[in-house]
Amino acid sequence: MFVRRSLLVTALALSVARCADQPTAVKAPAGPQFLRWATTPAFSARTDAHSNRSGAMSLTAPLSLDQYVVSFWAVRGESRSVTINYSSSIDAQIHPFLTLTTTDPRFVPGVGDLAMGDSVLVTVRVDTTSIGVSLEPTGLLFGEPAAMTMWYGGAGGDLNGDGVADSVDAHIEAQLLGLWYREGDENPWTKLTASQSLQDKSFTYGLPHFSQYAVAEALMEWSVGW
Hints:
Number of strands: 17
Oligomer: single chain
Helix content: 10-25%
Number of domains: 1
Largest sheet: 8 strands, antiparallel
CATH topology: Chondroitinase Ac, Chain A, domain 3
Distance between the termini: 36 Å
Number of helices: 2
């Protein structure tokens, strides 16, 4: 009887050891999948700039094959904003893409602190491939956060790029879509706790500093653990 019990204990121990040696599939976060424009957009910009400080503003010719740029003077203690709209071949309407409002730029990298009434030239670079922007000067710090709203309706409802806008895309929009940022090309993207409006198809966030921002889907990938 003792021998049988010993053999049973040994068999159980070997079974547990074998199970422990088996790989376990775990779901780990992967990099984001960025939303793409459904068609090539044409952009226009409008600012509230004062002629005595910043003059007339307009969206310039493309700097490269996939980026456009607009600049305006942000002044500490004054509300300054830029609105960027787009049109496409989908319809004849003008749609909102981005609004950015600054009132309290405090620190400019390489320059230092801004006094009340001082200004800094702000540049918005629009990515015409993915739905995102780069805001410069990178690292510009704000006392009161700059208010930014980005609309993603330009993706046309097909959020996973399979050519069809369906219930899968609705799930992605409600559960996985977010506003992401990164500080320079060498750093990873991080999801922000931005406020989403499903009705307006937009994200709103208070920016403590300038960086790169984009609307993207959070992807998950299966990895093997032991």
